[in-house]
């Protein structure tokens, strides 16, 4: 019996020992799934296009140009073949009626599609009222001041929508509007009728409504004149205005409508030739100031779209001790993306050559150049721009100045 007991104990001890020393099975290693970072298709495509562009093609994307009344097709082809311009701005001098406007835009797009990697911006100033480039027969809305007095932001949005549809019918894809300047000074003759009102709230409400109307129809809105041209009576076409505002005043006043527009979603903004001595002691206009173009617009307001100058042939820009070449290099290095040059081909050539030469000799870095061109490509792709007309001529004629559009006008002015 004793022997049997000892045997049982021995077996138990052996069993325990064996189990303790037996290898513990380890589950097979699981391979961690590879987390692939999703790439933005728009950014990817934009970078692909940028990587294939020659220097001259990149420089051309920095220019939106206008041309004289009697410009022939050969000269227009030079703009596209030699300078690869980003786009054109049209003025009333360039057409006599809707038929000729449509025909001109169609020709520009067809010429550009032959050799250029990117479609054109076809732009215009169509605010309504004082600044209107629609040919006769279109729906001509009154000045923004009158629109603002309606106190009906939904109606303001519909005016933007109607204008967008008529521009789109003509093949136009960019509108340098609306004015987001807050005008209280009755001596500001150049802007008092073009502003929606005399308070940040009114201008923000109607300005963003108009922008939403334009953008709902695929027109790129370019509000102006950042950072705010309202508090002056000086016309920047004739000389450089100075505004005596500090940062606190600007945050509560001038910047409010622009911030509202950017927060709503904005692809482009026009920079004004305006100086703020308390904020930019160098007395440079905003179009040459890294403080306004980079610190305020990009960093403070978070704007990621394209910054476009007001016309650089205006005296507020070029009336300085520097040459036009030095001015544009200063502007570009400060953060400006696109130069609007509305009238003179010799100035357009000077600007193109200055930017190209500065890139070649290192005064403008490749990184800085690519930064702006990439923004431009992204906006063109995002908005689905193409060098084809949206409507054939018969359809376009039915849209332009339609009875439905005129009914919106009647509602506004009743």
Output the CATH homologous superfamily. Answer: Glycoside hydrolase, family 3, N-terminal domain
- Give the structural class: alpha/beta
- Strand arrangement, major sheet: 5-4-3-2-1-8
Poorly predicted ranges (pLDDT <50, ≥5 residues)? 1-24
**Helical element count?**
17
Largest sheet: 6 strands, parallel
Whole-angstrom Rg: 30 Å
CATH architecture: Alpha-Beta Barrel
Order of helices and strands: HHHEHEHEHHEHEHHEHEHHEHHHH
Distance between the termini: 120 Å
* Number of self-contained structural domains: 1
Number of strands: 8
CATH topology: TIM Barrel
Overall pLDDT: 89
Question: How would you sum up this structure, described in words?
Answer:
With 414 residues, the chain is of the alpha/beta class. It has a single domain, classed as Alpha-Beta Barrel (TIM Barrel), CATH 3.20.20.300. It is 48% helix and 6% strand. The chain is built from 17 helices and eight strands. The strands form two sheets. Strands 5-4-3-2-1-8 form a six-stranded parallel beta sheet. A two-stranded parallel sheet has the order 6-7. α5 links the parallel β2 and β3. α7 (153-169) packs parallel to α8 and α7 (153-169) packs antiparallel against α16. It is globular and about 60 Å long.
Key terms for this structure?
single chain, 414 residues, alpha/beta, TIM Barrel, 48% helix, 6% strand, globular, disordered N terminus
Detail the topology: elements first, then pairings.
Blueprint: H1 2-21, H2 41-51, H3 55-60, E1 63-65, H4 73-81, E2 87-90, H5 98-115, E3 121-124, H6 144-149, H7 153-169, E4 174-175, H8 200-216, E5 220-221, H9 247-252, H10 255-264, E6 268-271, H11 290-300, E7 306-309, H12 315-318, H13 324-334, E8 339-341, H14 345-360, H15 366-382, H16 393-399, H17 403-413
Parallel strand pairs: 1-2, 1-8, 2-3, 3-4, 4-5, 6-7
């Amino acid at each position: 019996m004793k022997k049997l007991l000892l045997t049982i104990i021995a077996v138990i001890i052996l069993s325990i020992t064996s189990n303790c020393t037996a290898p513990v099975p380890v589950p097979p290693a699981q391979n961690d799934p590879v987390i692939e970072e999703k790439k933005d298709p728009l950014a990817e495509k934009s970078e692909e296009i940028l990587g294939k562009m020659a220097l001259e093609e990149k420089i051309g994307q920095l220019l939106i140009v206008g041309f004289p009344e009697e410009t022939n097709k050969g000269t227009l082809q030079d703009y596209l073949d030699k300078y690869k311009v980003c786009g054109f701005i049209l003025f009333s001098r360039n057409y006599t009626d809707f038929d000729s406007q449509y025909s001109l835009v169609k020709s520009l797009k067809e010429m550009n599609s032959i050799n250029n990697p990117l479609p054109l911006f076809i732009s215009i100033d169509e605010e309504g009222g004082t600044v209107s480039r629609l040919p006769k027969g279109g729906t001509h809305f009154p000045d923004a001041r009158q629109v603002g007095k309606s106190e009906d932001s939904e109606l303001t949005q519909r005016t933007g929508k109607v204008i967008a549809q008529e521009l789109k019918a003509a093949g136009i894809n960019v509108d340098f509007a609306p004015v987001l300047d807050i005008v209280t000074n009755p001596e500001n003759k150049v802007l008092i009728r073009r502003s929606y009102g005399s308070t940040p709230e009114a201008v923000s409400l109607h300005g963003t409504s108009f922008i939403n109307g334009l953008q709902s129809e695929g027109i790129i809105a370019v509000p102006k004149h950042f950072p705010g041209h309202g508090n002056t009576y000086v016309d920047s076409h004739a000389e450089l205005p100075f505004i005596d505002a500090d940062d606190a005043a600007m945050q509560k006043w001038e910047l409010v409508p622009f911030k509202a527009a950017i927060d709503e979603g904005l692809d482009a903004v026009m920079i004004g030739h305006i100086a703020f001595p308390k904020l930019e002691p160098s007395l440079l206009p905003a179009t040459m100031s890294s403080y306004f173009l980079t610190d305020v617009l990009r960093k403070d307001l978070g704007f990621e779209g394209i910054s476009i100058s007001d016309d650089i042939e205006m005296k507020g820009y070029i009336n300085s001790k520097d040459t036009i070449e030095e001015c544009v290099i200063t502007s570009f290095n400060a953060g400006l993306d696109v130069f609007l040059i509305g009238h003179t081909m010799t100035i357009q050539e000077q600007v193109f050559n200055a930017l190209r030469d500065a890139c070649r000799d290192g005064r403008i870095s490749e990184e800085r150049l690519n930064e702006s061109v990439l923004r431009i490509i992204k906006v063109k792709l995002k908005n689905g721009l193409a060098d084809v007309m949206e409507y054939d001529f018969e359809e376009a004629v039915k849209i332009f100045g339609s009875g439905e559009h005129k009914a919106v006008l009647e509602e506004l002015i009743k």
